Amino acid sequence: MTPELKERLDSIVKQDKIVVFMKGSKLMPQCGFSNNVVQILNTLGVPFSTVDVLEDMDVRQGIKEYSEWPTIPQVYLDGEFLGGSDILIEMYQNGELQEKVEVALAS
Which structural domain range is residue 90 located in? Predict the structure, then answer.
């Protein structure tokens, strides 16, 4: 990964409290896994931004290296990688996601 791309990704993951790298947008998810993440975050009623990896191949490949996670979507909370769709579903179901989000939004 180029230093420029790393710097760009650093900037993106820190731009908002919750950032989702996904296929499509929060209004038009382009895959089921991305849609799962959007639905969970909408259910929590929290603000989040999205980055459409289908629009930028550098970001699509780079974010996988950046997080050392092979799949999309990827969720960042307060600049830290949380996980993908399966991890978010599990965290939501056990209440951990709500706690982490509340703490992040309060800080």
Answer: 3-106
